[in-house]
Amino acid sequence: MSRLHVVTGKGGTGKTTVAAALALALAEEGRRTLLVEVEGRQGVAQLFETEALPYEERRIAVGPGGGEVYALAVDAEKALLDYLQMFYKLGGAGRALRRIGAIDFATTIAPGVRDVLLTGKVCEAVRRRTRSGGFVYDAVVMDAPPTGRIARFLGVNDQVAGLARVGPIHNQAQAVMRVLKSPETAVHLVTLLEEMPVQETVDGVAELRGAGLPVGRVFVNMTRPAVMDPGSVRAAEEARGEIAKAFSRAGLGGARRGGRAEQLVGPLLRQAREHAERLALEAELRDEVDGLGLPVHELELLADGADLPGVYLLAGELRDQGVSR
Fold first, then answer.
1. What pTM did the predictor assign?
2. What residue stretches are annotated with the ArsA/GET3 Anion-transporting ATPase-like domain (predicted)?
């Protein structure tokens, strides 16, 4: 079973919500999970209705199975100070560099440095052990950048290791890539049954596979139930007159041709046709997602929006679908 779950997806697909639900689903039977945010949006704090996450691991929820969920918002600047202290013992000097703006320069201007620090911090949490030798966290879930740049984000350490041939930077970059490319990591993609998100998912899977990164599952988010199939729509169109009469009997207008009752039927049939067309398109997109050869999980659209009860509801769906096994 994977221990590092990287969750990516096109903007607007509910990536953060799915990452939060996955962290909850994995926190079963006394297990401890860590949910990490790396984009600085504080989306996790909003979902769990808590104050902004600091640069420290803090318990934010109890999973449906009784385990604990901790959360961390990785700050690139503070991660660099940790890095300088860890490898170069420059705690005081690092703070001096921060005062003169060198830290800000390194994390915003130097190519790839920011992503190296973010992935490095996450992988450190994956590898960290207790005094008794067990892992501190049974699973780590990363709310990662969007699909369009996920392969570059995760692969930056490969580039750094190639540039720095020796020394602690080289060793750290190699250690991170050993985690990211190992069987204990899975990169999951979140999509909707819409053309652009599905195409970006297909492209993202190809890019991840090309980079040698382990692809996990596809989460099809915000699915809606089918109300009418094409056959039902055709039957309704053929029974247009009978439907108008039924409306009239229900007090929705006269039964005469062109009356109010019949005028109501046209818009309803148009909506039914649009619904059937959407179902046909979604069926084609499902086939495209299934063609990736990955486990696929569907999550229903949350009627009340992405809030804390909704996240728990999705976590229960994921557990029922076996993601924690």
1. 0.85
2. 5-179
